[in-house]
Amino acid sequence: MTDLPKHVEIHEEGPREGFQIEPGPISTADKIRLIEALADTGLHHIQACSFVNPRIVPGWADAEAVIAGFKAKPGVHYTALWFNANGLNRALAFRDKLTITGSIALTASEAFTQKNLHRSHAENVEAMRKQTALHLENGVPVTRVGVMAAFGCNYQGDISPAQVVRTLEDGFAIAAETGARIEVISLADTMGWATPARIERVLSEVRSRWPDKQLSLHLHDTRGLAVANAHAGLRMGVTRYDSTVGGLGGCPFAGQKGAAGNICTEELVLLCEEMGISTGVDLDKLIEVGRMAEEIVGHVLPSELIHAGSLDAFRRLAA
Amino acid sequence: MTDLPKHVEIHEEGPREGFQIEPGPISTADKIRLIEALADTGLHHIQACSFVNPRIVPGWADAEAVIAGFKAKPGVHYTALWFNANGLNRALAFRDKLTITGSIALTASEAFTQKNLHRSHAENVEAMRKQTALHLENGVPVTRVGVMAAFGCNYQGDISPAQVVRTLEDGFAIAAETGARIEVISLADTMGWATPARIERVLSEVRSRWPDKQLSLHLHDTRGLAVANAHAGLRMGVTRYDSTVGGLGGCPFAGQKGAAGNICTEELVLLCEEMGISTGVDLDKLIEVGRMAEEIVGHVLPSELIHAGSLDAFRRLAA
Q1: Are B76 and B46 in contact (CB under 8 A)?
Q2: pLDDT value, residue A253
Q3: Nearest to B112 by CA among B145, B150, B156, B158
C-alpha cells in the first residue's frame, strides 16, 4: 500500500528538545537567534520552549525571556510544551504570540508510564481527563491524541499494534467525555524501537480504525533507523512529522545516555523533496541553521547532512 | 514491486575502509584483533586489507603483516582490495588465506573518473580490459561488474539510470571480450546521492536488463539516508550489501571532509533481522565489535546503534 502525500507538515522541535538536554548553559540570545533563523527557512511550525519546572529542567529557566524576545514571523506557528496547570498558565501569558493547543498524551507501555511519570496508566488517564478539561475551560482547544512508546519500550519490550489502538481508544474516550475535538493522532517512537515493517503494521491498524484523522510521527534515531522509518511513514501517507534541526536533543532513557535524539529535520526535508513531496523548507538555509545549532551547543550534532551539504549545492557546482 | 529476500549476504569492509582513512596510526595488532572479532560475529565476508602503495595510503603499509597475522576462521571469506598488477601480486602471495576474485570497476560519471583516476572513461575501460585479462591469466576469476557514482556525483550532478545501464554494458563488453563470467552487479553510492526513490528507479532498469545477476549495493551515509536506501534495496530484492562496522571509514571527496562513510553493518543487520531477513550475524556480538572499533580508532564512530544497544538486549531486560 503506497500512498505518498504531495505535501508534509514538519514540526520543528529543535529549540525545545535541544536546549532542555544540553549540559552547557545556552544563552537566551542564542536560543532566540536559532528560533528566528528556523522561521526564515520556511518552517511553519516551531516548538520554541518548554514551560517546565526550572529546578528539574534548568535549560528552560529562561522560557519567558525567550518567548518574549524573539521576533515572530507572520504565518509561522510557534508552540510550547507544558505538563501541568502552572505550565499552561505560563503559556497562556503569551497567547498573542504562541499557538496554544492541548494534547491528550498517553503511553502504550505501562512500565514506561511508571518510570517516566511515576503513575499507572489508569492514573495517567485520569490526569489527562482533568488536564483536558482544564484546557477547554481556558478556551484552549485539545486537538491531538498522542501515544508515546508506540513501537516498543526499553522497560517493557515490544508493543503490539493492538496495544497502541487500545491506548488511542483511551485517549478518544477522554476526548468524548470532555468534548475535545481531536484532529491528529501522533505516534511517538520514544525509545527508538520502530522499524519500517513495524511502522507499516501499526499505521495500518490505526488508519483503519480512525481513517479521518491526520497521522503524525515523532521519530527518534536511537538506532539509526529514523529516516527509513520516516520513509515508511511517507509510503503509508503520514503527512505530519516532528523533527529537530541538526538532530538536536538526545535520549535520557535507561542505558542510552550517548544515544541519538530525534530525526534530523534537514535529512527529513532531503528525503521528502527528493521524492517530490513538498515541505516548504529551503534546505540550504536549513543546513546553515543546523551548522549554527552546532556552533551554539559547541559540539558535533548527529546530522550527517549538515556536514556533507545538500545535493542542490553540488548540482549548482556541477552545472 | 516488493520482493523481500529471505537472506542477505553482508560484505564487511570496516577494516579496509576504516584503517585507510583514519589519521592516527592503528597498530597491526589492533587491525588483527578487529578482523578476528568480526569473524566471530557470524559475518562470512570480511575485506581485511588494501594492497595499495604505502606512500599514498600509509594506513595500509602493514597489509602483509595483517594478513599473515590473523587466524582465519573456517567458512569465512577474507578478501582484499587492489588496483594494479603490483597489488594483485601482493594479494596472490596469500592465495591460501584470501578469497581472490577480480572486479571490473567503472564509474558512471566521466567527471569523477577524471578526478579520481586521472583518466577518461574510455581510458578506464581500456585499463579494465587489461586488468581483467591479467586476472584471468593468473587464474583469478573476475565475477563482478561494479559501477561507482551510480546514483549521482559531486562533480557531475545527477546520474540517469540510462547512464548506469550504459556503464554496465561497457563492463559486460569487457567481460565478453576477455571471457570473464560475471555473477554480480554492484552499484555504489560513492558520494551519497542515493534516495529510496532513486534506488528503485535505477534497480528497476538494471534488473530488467540483467535479470539473472545478483545485485549488490555499496551505500554511503553521507547525507543520512543509507539505511532508508538499504530498505529500498531490500524491497527491490537486493541480496548483497557492503557495509562497515560502526560506520568506519569516511568520505574523501570534494567539500565533504567531515561527512559520514559507509552504512553501518550493525544498523543494516538490525534492519534486516527485524524484518525477518536473516544475516547470519549475532547483533549483540557485532555491537561489541563496533564498540571495540571505536576504542581502537579513539573517537566516536557514526553508528547510533553501538551507543544505544540492540532491541534484543532490552527485550531480555524486560522479559
Answers
A1: yes
A2: 66
A3: B156
Within 8 A by CB and 6+ apart from A100, the residues are A79, A80, A91, A92, A140
- The ipTM estimated for the assembled molecules is 0.93
Residue B117: what residue type?
L
Q: Are residues B199 and B298 in the same domain?
A: no
Domain residues for the domain of B86 are: 1-100+244-248+262-319
Judged by a CB distance cut-off of 8 A, whether residue A155 touches chain B is: yes
Cell numbers representing residue A81 in the block: 510544551
Nearest Cα to Cα of residue A61 among A83, A90, A36: A90
| CB-nearest partner of A197 from B195, B274, B304 | B274
pLDDT in tens, A89-113: 999 999 999 999 999 999 999 999 9
pTM for this structure? 0.95
Nearest to A260 among B304, B311, B314 (CB): B304
CATH number of the domain encompassing residue B184: 3.20.20.70
Cα separation, A147 vs A192, whole angstroms? 14
Q: Tell me if A192 and B230 make a contact (CB, 8 A cut-off).
A: no
At residue B109, what are phi and psi to the nearest 5 degrees? -110, 120
Element (H, E) at B67: helix B63-69
Residues in chain A within 8 Å Cβ distance of B199: none
A49 is catalytic: no
